[in-house]
Amino acid sequence: MQKDLEPVVRGYYSDEVHQRAEGTLGPYFRVLYTILRRISEKEELSETEKARYGNLVRSQLSSAEVALIAANALTTASNDFKRFVIEFRLLKYLPPGGYGSILERIYPEEAFAPRD
């Protein structure tokens, strides 16, 4: 993991994406964050059930969405979204190369691992 890349990605995302598309992406990210937080914090769910529900959410995300979510999760505006990106292994299906190779240098291996 290279922490020195994190501020670069965070700055680029904030300047180039967030400022231009917050009105469109913000509500989407907030709903996704809330769903994942509720799954994570629901004491009545077993770890297996949490993984299963997280996998359902993850299965609906395109590679482009995952890359944007991962970049957004690095910003202070996203609260602790990064925690859920890692916990629910949202980067598992991010294709190698491109954004994936950059994010692999920021996020721990756990974020890319299966959660079955």
Task: Name its key features.
116 residues; mainly alpha; globular
Describe the model.
The structure is a single chain. The chain is mainly α. 62% of the residues lie in helices and 0% in strands. The chain has five helices and no strands. The chain has helices at 5-41, 47-59, 63-72, 81-87, 99-103. Helix 1 packs across helix 3.
Write the layout of secondary structure elements.
Elements (H helix, E strand, L loop, with lengths): L4 H37 L5 H13 L3 H10 L8 H7 L11 H5 L13
Helix pairs in contact: 1-2, 1-3
Offer a concise description of the structure.
The model has no long low-confidence stretch (mean pLDDT 93).
Count of extended strands: 0
Distance between the termini: 24 Å
Assign an overall shape. globular
Would you tell me the structural class of the helices and strands?
mainly alpha
What portion of residues belong to β-strands?
A: under 5%
Our count of domains comes out at 1
Q: Helix and strand succession?
A: HHHHH
Which stretches are poorly predicted, pLDDT < 50 over at least 5 residues?
A: none
Overall mean confidence score, pLDDT: 93
Roughly how many Å is the radius of gyration? 14 Å
Number of helices: 5
- Assign a percent range to the helix content: 55-70%
Major beta sheet, specifics?
none
